[in-house]
From TrEMBL:
Enzyme's top EC category: transferase
Source organism of this protein record: Streptomyces venezuelae
UniProt domain Malate synthase N-terminal: residue ranges: 18-70
Highest rank taxon of the organism: Bacteria
Coiled coil: none
GO MF: malate synthase activity
Name assigned to this protein: Malate synthase
């Protein structure tokens, strides 16, 4: 390992946490500081390029596959590195934050993989950032347990061969970590999350027969994938492990990345293990990028945009074809249903929908898929078992029947569905309820029997903004306006107070959440990410 001078990295504005010295060691902080020194300038350039790309889309209202990378797409000879044994069978993956109870339940869930989430399912409080790291290390060292104070129920890990393989998701490139600074400048949250996890666990994971595996969120271009690849090369040399030990799965959850899937795999080819189809952030990205494009880009209610919509089908089938052509895993979307403990009929209907969704994904050639709750693991497993049998994946299904033209990915107007008044109400309800929980430090929240995360809030506020700016007329005859959104939000706030009582309402962050949702939904200038202004209010 390289010998460096004492870290210039400072911990600021943070109360000490129990056992934080095990995570924030001098050596780990020196590594994070070196990542910052080497790679943050390029991160900054790439964020500026995002803005330039957005301006170009605003001017043209279109996207296409990149002419400058045609040679990469046309060269059939290259493949990504073979999957390590621990990542070869990914037929069901469970997602969730890294709190202590979730860590145990996810590892024990029966899923093949756990997406241990420091991003959309985790509000980035200092406590969640640091103690989440500690929980993962404790799990690898089998010194983790948990007793629920309310129920008295105890949780402990199963045997090593029954545990899910961890694939950790750091924060997206746009988020900084204000509690860690170098010379007064906040370090990107992605480098903090990746750096602390990699430094403490890379060698330990190799000893366990696994490795440092990552999900890369909100990637917008192949150049951003190249940056991650360079970080992996540097990090592996720094701690002295073989090149190619790291594996990364990239979420194709932005519309620009959907046009660069092969290039993204190519940049990461020595470290790539697959691509994933992320639904809510993908729709949010379409609204964000084509917000000037007129009525043909107006999305209906989010729940009416299923994965069978023609433009979503084009995206997912292209993803499967791209992955299998290059020897990578194709991982399907989220089943977000949270089973009801009171209503068996609700569960029956929802379980049937989940089964149909997973049957479709397995039939389309996906190698695995996501669920948000342990009760959904057997349902998804059954769908993929039926197609895979004893095979670990179906990468041999090349899907050469798939042909996607550039316009197919943005053919939003191929949908018959329209925005509805109930859709506006739902966007306001879910937006307020999610943001309130996020401001209290919760990133994964059960709302109306669905597990919601930050992508939920993004699509909710984006749809309100889009419908108002497009002057959408609902089936009720009412026009989407700022005044109508304020009226619906006021009614929802009153309904929440009635539902939970004055005392609980006063102790929560309901007014704050209401105000933030409206601020972002009604501002003339569309904010790139809700989590940026929200983070300023997160204490």
């Amino acid at each position: 390992m390289s010998a460096l001078a004492p870290s210039p990295l400072a911990i600021v504005d943070a109360e000490p946490l129990p056992r934080q010295e095990e995570v924030l060691t001098d050596a780990a902080l020196a590594f994070v500081a070196e990542l910052h020194r080497q790679f943050t300038p390029r991160r900054d350039e790439l964020l500026a390029r995002r803005a330039e790309r957005r301006a170009e889309i605003a001017r043209t209202s279109t996207l296409d596959f990149l002419p400058e990378t045609a040679a990469v797409r046309e060269d059939d000879s290259w493949k990504v590195a073979p999957a390590p044994a621990a990542l070869n069978d990914r037929r069901v993956e469970i997602t969730g934050p890294t709190d202590r109870k979730m860590t145990i339940n996810a590892l024990n869930s029966g899923a093949k993989v756990w997406l241990a989430d420091f991003e959309d399912a985790s509000a980035p409080t200092w406590e969640n950032v640091v103690l989440g790291q500690l929980n993962l290390t404790d799990a690898y060292e089998r010194r983790i347990d948990f007793t629920d104070e309310r129920s008295g129920k105890s949780y402990a890990l199963k045997g090593a061969d029954e545990l899910a393989t961890v694939v950790m998701r750091p924060r997206g490139w746009h988020l900084d970590e204000r509690h860690l600074q170098v010379e007064g400048r906040a370090v990107p949250g992605a480098l903090v999350d990746f750096g602390l996890y990699f430094f403490h666990n890379a060698k330990r994971l190799i000893e366990l027969g696994k490795g440092p595996y990552f999900y890369l969120p909100k990637t917008e271009s192949y150049l951003e994938a190249r940056l991650w690849n360079d970080i992996f090369v540097f990090a592996q040399d720094y701690v002295g492990i073989p090149q190619g030990t790291v594996r990364a799965t990239v979420l194709i959850e932005t519309i620009t990345a959907a046009y660069q899937m092969e290039e993204i795999l190519y940049e990461l080819r020595d470290h790539a293990s697959g691509l994933n189809a992320g639904r809510w952030d993908y729709l949010f990205s379409i609204v964000k990028n084509f917000r000037d494009g007129g009525s043909k880009f107006v999305l209906p209610d989010r729940n009416l945009v299923t994965m069978t919509a023609p433009f979503m089908r084009a995206y997912t089938e292209l993803l499967v074809r791209t992955c299998h052509k290059r020897g990578a895993h194709a991982i399907g979307g989220m089943a977000a249903f949270i089973p009801s403990r009171k209503d068996a009929e609700v569960n029956k209907v929802a379980f049937e929908k989940v089964a149909n969704d997973k049957d479709r994904e397995a039939g389309d050639g996906f190698d695995g898929s996501w669920v948000a709750h342990p009760d959904l693991v057997p349902i998804a497993m059954k769908s993929f078992d039926a197609v895979l049998g004893d095979k670990p994946n179906q990468k041999d299904r090349l899907r050469e029947d798939v042909s996607v033209a550039p316009g197919d990915l943005i053919a939003i107007d191929s949908l018959d569905a329209k925005p509805t008044y109930d859709g506006l109400v739902n966007a306001v309800q879910v937006g307020i309820r999610y943001i309130e929980a996020w401001l209290r430090g919760l990133g994964a929240v059960a709302i109306f029997n669905l597990m919601e995360d930050a992508a939920t809030a993004e699509i909710s506020r984006s749809q309100i903004w889009q419908w108002i700016n497009a002057g959408v007329v609902f089936e009720t005859g009412e026009t989407a306006t700022a005044d109508l959104a304020r009226k619906v939000a006021a009614e929802e706030l009153a309904a929440i107070r009635e539902e939970i009582g004055d005392e609980a309402f006063a102790s929560g962050k309901w007014q704050q959440a209401h105000d933030l949702l409206l601020q972002l939904s009604l501002d003339a200038d569309y904010a790139d990410f809700l989590t940026l202004p929200a983070y300023e209010q997160l204490r």
